[in-house]
């Protein structure tokens, strides 16, 4: 839908900047200071914004101002537009340097699906620049909704599906996932078959943080067995840290996603233990905003490569 002509003609980037700042401070005086404007000029600008959008957006009081529901929604959109403007500025600079665009991807640390897709994208389009942000899925989704990322690759749990803004995103299921226990190839556990989870309760573990999908699945396994989950000797999110500490014999066992664990085994760094069960994890999915992307061709190209890499991993 086209933006109303009057709004296009009147709305300026400084209006968006003011809205973004008012999402962070609680007084016009503080906003004016950040924008290097006088307080009367900032007040006039705020009045212009409210006139453009046809009503009051902020509640005034002796303590300052606070956005009402309409104002809060507008602040969120203004913040996205300001981030997109910053991205456009960076992309123009990249074009001047001979680059062909910027793709911002969010993924869990060591996500093999995203890594393979990025590698293929850069082979096909060497002039493209890719920014990968690693982190917990809930933080990555918040960054995606805030316009800081173009897409996210990660597990979709019931908690994420309860996000009140989930309808703003399109989700595409990529591949099923499960949990793997890994050890050094020299570990005596590698000679065992169909190992029971209870047998590993006394070992030295490196485990991901409690809020991670892997850790929650790990704890659920032991709780369903009526046992207390093993304590960790080291807690770390990075699969690289897991591999490093296991190979140095600092810890005995670690947890990885099955696809990543198989890749480590293929490279010879770690072995995947033969467990009596391989607990399922939430499926990996691609998330992108439903709103039109500023980089539709680049994003679509990456999504296709991501689906291809996920199919190859699943088939392997």
From TrEMBL:
Alphabetized PROSITE patterns for the sequence: HTH_LYSR (PS50931)
Keywords: DNA-binding, Transcription, Transcription regulation
Transmembrane segments: none
Signal peptide stretch: none
SUPFAM superfamilies attached to this UniProt entry: Periplasmic binding protein-like II (SSF53850), Winged helix' DNA-binding domain (SSF46785)
Cross-referenced InterPro entries: HTH-type_LysR_regulators, LysR_HTH_N, LysR_subst-bd, WH-like_DNA-bd_sf, WH_DNA-bd_sf
GO molecular function, one term: DNA-binding transcription factor activity
Superkingdom as given in the UniProt entry: Bacteria
GO annotation, cellular component aspect: cytosol
Residue intervals of the HTH lysR-type domain: 11-68
Family: Belongs to the LysR transcriptional regulatory family.
Name under which the protein is recorded: Bacterial regulatory helix-turn-helix protein, LysR family protein 85
Species: Achromobacter xylosoxidans (strain A8)
């Amino acid at each position: 839908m086209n933006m109303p002509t009057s709004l296009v003609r009147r709305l300026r980037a400084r209006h968006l900047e003011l809205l973004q700042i008012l999402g962070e401070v609680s007084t016009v005086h503080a906003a004016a200071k950040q924008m290097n404007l006088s307080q009367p000029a900032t007040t006039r600008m705020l009045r212009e914004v409210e006139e453009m959008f046809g009503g009051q957006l902020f509640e005034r009081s002796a303590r300052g101002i606070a956005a009402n529901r309409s104002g809060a929604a507008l602040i969120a959109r203004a913040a996205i537009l300001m981030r997109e403007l910053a991205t456009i500025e960076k992309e123009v600079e990249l074009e001047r340097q001979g680059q062909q665009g910027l793709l911002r991807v969010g993924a869990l640390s060591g996500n093999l699906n995203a890594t393979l897709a990025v590698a293929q994208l850069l082979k096909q389009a060497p002039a493209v620049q890719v920014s990968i942000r690693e982190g917990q899925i809930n933080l990555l989704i918040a960054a995606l909704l805030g316009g800081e990322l173009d897409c996210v690759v990660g597990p979709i749990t019931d908690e994420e599906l309860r996000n009140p803004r989930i309808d703003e995103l399109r989700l595409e299921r990529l591949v099923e996932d499960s949990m793997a226990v890994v050890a050094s190839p020299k570990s005596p556990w590698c000679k065992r078959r169909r190992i029971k989870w209870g047998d590993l309760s006394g070992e030295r573990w490196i485990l991901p943080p409690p809020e991670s999908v892997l850790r929650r699945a790990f704890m659920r396994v032991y709780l369903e067995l009526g046992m207390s989950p093993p304590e960790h000797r080291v807690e770390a999110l990075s699969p690289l840290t897991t591999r490093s500490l296991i190979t140095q014999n600092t810890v005995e066992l670690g947890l990885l996603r099955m696809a990543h664990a198989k890749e480590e085994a293929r490279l010879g760094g770690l072995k995947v233990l033969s467990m009596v069960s391989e607990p399922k994890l939430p499926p990996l999915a691609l998330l992108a905003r439903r709103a039109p992307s500023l980089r539709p061709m680049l994003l679509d190209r990456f999504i296709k490569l991501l689906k291809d890499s996920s199919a190859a991993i699943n088939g392997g």
